[in-house]
Amino acid sequence: MRITCTILTARQHSGSGGNTLRPDLRSAATLGVSVLALASIAAPSLARAQDTDERSAEQAREKADGEFLGTIDIGESTRAIRTDTATPITSINREEIEDRQANTIAELIDSIPGVTIVNGSTPIGSGINIRGFGATGTYGTDQKVLVLVDGATNGSEELYRIGTQLFTDPLLYKSASVLRGTVGSFEYGSGVIGGTVILETSDAYDYLGGKTGFTVNQNLSGASNGGGFATSTTLAAMPSENVEFLANYSYRTSGNQEDGHGERIENSAFSLPSFLVKGAVHFGADNAHTLKASFSQTTTAERDKPYDSFGTTGGVFGNVDRDTKSRNLVVGYYYEPLGTDAINLSLVYTRAQQDIEQSYIPYSSPVFGEVGTPVTDADQRYVTSKVTLKNAALFATGSVRHNLRVGLEYIDKDRLDASSAPGGTDRRMAAFAVDEIGLFRGFTVTPAVRWETSNVKGELDDGSNASYTNEGLMGGVSARYELPFGFSVFGSWAKTRSMPIIDDLENVAYMNQPEKSRSWEAGAAFDRTGIFTPNDRFAIKANYYDTDLTDNTSYSGVAEVYLEGVEIEASYATPSGFYLDFNGNIVSGTQLSTGGALSDWGNLPQNTYQLALGKRFGDHLDVRWEGVLAEDLDTDGTVEQGYDVHNLRASFSPEVGFLKFLTFRVSVENIFDTYYVPALATRPALGRNFKGAVSVQF
């Protein structure tokens, strides 16, 4: 991505009302801002933008209707580093989503520091681990990582040997963000220790650039390893500025994949059809009122496949036929009047539902004899509905500036009773407030608080009913100070509680024992243009974190967990197109057993370092090499071997004649066909994989 700053002059034009200035230039002309002053202000401001299209110069020229004087090109790397906040957050935009051609969300975000994937090349038996918490090889999740799709909570159930069940297609989304740790999580949920994954589906507005009309976007891709194929078709329409509509159908499939030794990776074949429909209506004065609605669905069918999606039990559970359907519904009302910054109101209803229908195939285990029922012959369904009322307000109290977000939330989880996944209801009420306070120039402090109460009900094995109520007050504070030359320091402290869950209804002690977590972080960042050459850009952010989990109920035989680590993100880019991206994750951790013994944390990921070197040739060609290095991991004498993997990627946009609508992408992942099994994974990673994609929009 390259940032292009456009320099324009304010020019009068004639109209029915006489000579006037366009509103967006009137204030500049009134104050007598010169072209040079405007450029000096715009350049550093735009340099901090996260997602600026290279063709924004032409668009800005048309909008301003002024005289075009030239552009300033500022180097920018593949992914923006958020040096402007104390919160450790990394975002992947739509362009990178298409470049990476990932099969799953886990595979898409595995290049973010602190994120470790479990079997990420397939949606079946995969999961996401952040900072040592999240997916495990026994249950799909430990409730310490939150996944939101347009605000709807997904993939959050502990389903024995099945996985997180986060079935969705990456091409449905315009962005994927990972907010690591606890301090930034309080407006999204409780019990978040590893982090929060925030997915936002595409809008018609994005495809059309805010202009009225109709467009079609088609993406086709294929992969050599497993004979993978994916197609994604999007129709976007804005018949007027008040109405927008989008429809997408995506289909992704793969045969059994192969590892670096050329051996078949069992249970890696899948087919994944998905669709999304989304619309919005804007009305009222200045279109201040908006109604939005979206519905998405993803399904998958497994026939005669192992019940154990992780493949860790040697087939003792036998095989099943399993159909999974995941659905998300989001309906929202938004009010943002132009006359005040104190109101940015939203009232949103979300419903995430997943149905798993499975039947076992009769099988006689040499260990357990006849298996299949009741564990493997159980249908499962869980529904999480939420109503969230939130307002964001910008205001000042004297010289102190505030960006205050407050909200109320009602959460209703309803789960069908099934063997190994007890049924019941979990109803919660929550209130939260986050206030970003600018005390003086360069210094910001952000306190956050969340209060939540939960009531879990269900029927016990003996036929009696049980009900447990818990509540907790949690929160934290972060602070950041930035010096004028681009250097900043920051730190944070936070505590949260994980409320008891439906799975533990039979355990009275666990149902009265919310898990507690405390974490603190500290770091520094530097972001500046013109370091070595005019208009080059260098950015770096390093963050140290220390996290303790106590009163544990999620991990058998473990009383407490202690983790600490360092995350690093850095980038350098020149206006001529050369760029470099680096990130690293160094982590260590121990666990205290219920018997009082200390040992290495069992879900510890490897230390990893990722480097990308690339070159852009104008607006047409982008070529880069990526390398991933993972260190050996020794946990109490058990060594997970380190590895290094290399990838090549290129994208080409001809932008001439009828080809100007096309973008071609090719890549080779794991160039040297390296065999490796990442820590936390339960099966080998993919061997060499050639990928190709073409996208067109007209």
Automatic annotation (TrEMBL):
InterPro entries: Beta-barrel_TonB_sf, Plug_dom, Plug_dom_sf, TonB-dep_rcpt-like. This is TonB-dependent receptor. The keyword ATP-binding does not apply. Keywords: Cell outer membrane, Membrane, Receptor, Transmembrane, Transmembrane beta strand, Transport. It is found in: Cell outer membrane. Its main location: membrane. Gene3D superfamilies: TonB-dependent receptor, beta-barrel domain, TonB-dependent receptor, plug domain. Belongs to the TonB-dependent receptor family. The lineage of its organism: Bacteria, Pseudomonadati, Pseudomonadota, Alphaproteobacteria, Sphingomonadales. Pfam families: Plug. It is a multi-pass membrane protein. It comes from the Bacteria. Residues 84-196 form the TonB-dependent receptor plug domain.
